[in-house]
């Protein structure tokens, strides 16, 4: 999530009400319903955990462990976890030693996860891409390589298949060389890879895309001058071009994070793609809810007929 966008996101703590309240269900790890057997119709589910922002501070390791327990208690038809970026609190303008401490907290909490995990990179997972950077360009923690090697299977974007569905993980963060800061962008090399990946997938296979920074969002417009909306850090600046590439394929769902609220956008007569911003595991950076939106994660159920359903779950964290 951007902490330096066109409006102060940290001011959201004072907002009242859940502006984007997707269905919220308290999930208890010992709930009998959570032990449901796999479905017999070939459908499967996965958990979408975004904006975890784990840190040794603020009881964040405790909160992430509670979230992992809730995910482990999901039905047996839950196949994997898909993270949405910002796995740690911040690597943009922190010292390398603290960045390593944050990743150690993430690794320790995720040891208890019983499902495979596929990770999306977020802006706060990138070392030193800030005009306030404390990490030198020659440090191993600088840039995206640390994430790619440990959490991206050697890359910051990739794809995989599961249960007749195709999943595409995008890297939505680029570096503005003039300012030293990040902004939302899908670079040319990735765009060419995406075109090839879609061509191999074909136009019939249902597709889900994961990105950290959103393609579209009204969150900024509701909290700032609507003529201005988000700044360059808040949205994928060439998202309209990427959507044209995706548009002729069977993209059912685009998942994102970044804004820490649950937001669903769909135009029923324009295209077939639903855009969901998945709230935040950490809420307001482990300090409470965001505009009434509790700390939580999403559960997506994918069916053999190419349809899906989405539910946002409060895992019971109290800041």
Can you give keywords for this protein?
319 residues, 6 helices, globular, alpha/beta, Purple Acid Phosphatase, chain A, domain 2, six-stranded mixed beta sheet, 21% strand
Structure description:
By secondary structure, this protein is α/β, with parallel strands linked by helices. The protein has a single domain (about 10-30, about 40-315), classed as 4-Layer Sandwich (Purple Acid Phosphatase, chain A, domain 2), CATH 3.60.21. The chain is about 20% helix and about 20% strand. It contains six helices and 14 strands. It has a six-stranded mixed β-sheet, with no helix packed on it. A six-stranded mixed β-sheet has the order 5-6-9-10-12-11, with helices on one face. α1 (about 60-70) runs parallel beside α2 (about 95-110). The longest helix has 15 residues, at about 95-110. The model is unreliable at about 1-40 (pLDDT under 50).
According to DSSP, the number of beta strands is: 14
Q: How many whole angstroms does the radius of gyration measure?
A: 18 Å
The CATH class assignment is: Alpha Beta
Q: What string gives the helices and strands in order?
A: EEHEHEHEEEEHEHHEEEEE
What is the count of structural domains? 1
* Widest sheet: strand ordering: 1-14-13-2-3-4
SSE blueprint:
Elements: E1 24-26, E2 44-49, H1 60-72, E3 78-83, H2 96-110, E4 117-118, H3 145-151, E5 158-162, E6 165-169, E7 173-175, E8 182-184, H4 188-201, E9 207-210, H5 219-222, H6 239-247, E10 251-256, E11 262-265, E12 274-278, E13 296-302, E14 308-314
Parallel strand pairs: 1-14, 2-3, 3-4, 6-9, 9-10, 10-12
Antiparallel strand pairs: 2-13, 5-6, 7-8, 11-12, 13-14
Helix pairs in contact: 1-2
